[in-house]
Amino acid sequence: MHSLTLTTLLLSLVASPTLARLSLSVAVSGPSDVNGVNNLNVTTKIQNTGNETLRLLNDPQSVLTPRWATNVFSISKASSLSLVIPDFRGVRVKWSPSLAATGNDLTILAPGQSIEYLHDLSARYDFKTAGEGTYDFLAADTFTHVDATGKRISLKASPNLPTSLKLSGALASRSSAPTSAKFGKRAQFANCTASQQTLINAAVPAAQKYAGDALSYLTNHTSSTPRFTTWFGPYTSPSYELVTAHFTNISGGQFDTFTFDCSCTEVDTYAFVYPDIYGYIHLCDAFWTAPLTGTDSQGGTLVHECSHFTKNGATQDYAYGQSACQTLAQTDPGEAIMNADSHEYFAENNPVLS
């Protein structure tokens, strides 16, 4: 009897399909010595270590998109008694995971397959203040897999292997950003068609109203409310003061004096900015088909981008989309109060929260 039971169990295990396992690793490599930040390049290798094909979104906040000069490396001086990091000089991007998934903007990796990317970091990081020395480079380790049903699944790379290199010589970054925005009595345009200029001229007052209304709401609500906690997490005085300071700065800026550049053609991206270049916003393809107001709107996009400017708050892109931002507010309110999409959704207030 026991023998029959054991045999049945063994046969069932043999007949059972292999359990699906989604996993990947990422490793950074590069030369041991680099003379001058203009020669600073590293390579990332992403490998599917699981037994299922990976369909990874080409997220600008991952190492899958070296064309975007985003902050996807954690860089610190090795053996330093205090944290010494270079200054970031790249871009902050409003990107849409849903548009990317719909458009199949994916990297496909079969089990065991790997892919390598070369990253030119010469324009992303400025080492003037950090100085010469040996630095550790660690890649961003979060990726998004899209399964057969369209569900998006967050994956952490393990292992995540860093590299070290010695940097010397000229340490100032070679930025490709515009040197400054030109401020005038009306909005300035670069590489924009007449129809694009018309859309921008409508979005500007919508953004100004969103920012002003958000500041007014914060001024009149100095305790916990559903609107605040939904996007920024539990109400505390420091979090309230920080968010209020951000919207004071955003509202105080005159959107109708900014420069808008329409040369970006990324279909799943709304816009991007160089945070230190105040008042210069690059608009991409997703912006033109967004509604004027409402969720992920043109007006809201301008608020999102304006929050990125260093002088306004230097917000980051920790999460994209309403669902992910609501989760972020509950799991990491410290990141939520510094997340650009969270600021946008608070300002758009759609659906309406009291």
From TrEMBL:
Cofactor: Zn(2+)
UniProt keyword list: Hydrolase, Metal-binding, Metalloprotease, Protease, Signal, Zinc
GO molecular function: metal ion binding; metalloendopeptidase activity
Keyword S-adenosyl-L-methionine: no
Keyword ATP-binding on entry: no
InterPro entries: Fungal_M35_metalloproteases (IPR050414), Lys_MEP (IPR029463), M35_peptidyl-Lys (IPR034115), MetalloPept_cat_dom_sf (IPR024079)
Protein name: Lysine-specific metallo-endopeptidase domain-containing protein
